[in-house]
Amino acid sequence: MKYALRQILAEEMTYTINRIKMDPNTKFEIKPQFSRTVRRVQENDKLWFLTLEVKVESTEQEPKPFNIKARLVGIFEAEGIDSDLDRQDLVINMTEIVYPYLRASVSALTANSFINPLMLPVIPAGTMFPEDSQPPQNLN
To answer: Is the backbone of residue 126 left (phi > 0), alpha (psi -120 to 50) or beta?
Structure first.
């Protein structure tokens, strides 16, 4: 298997302040929600798109001082993907490559919004999404 990152695009970056009444010593639990999609181009089977998204959203049950949504798309060229295991390895590796850019984008977005920067956790490869730790099941 051989692959290379060709481009990263910021598809969406939003920050919204929530004007909620809070005690000055209130601590908020920020629980980022991650999602990922993988697509291939039918006309060029070497081209792969990995979309990685993180959201932090305020709810009535769990108010947050802000909402954030950041979605990045990594464009990769890959060959030698001959099995479901190869595909799973490629998806994990693409996620591992794009995630640091997503972390940096969220930190910059919050810092540029004049709040303490939100630092997403460092997540070891293959543990961000539950399906990455499962054996491949006909992923084509």
So the answer is: left
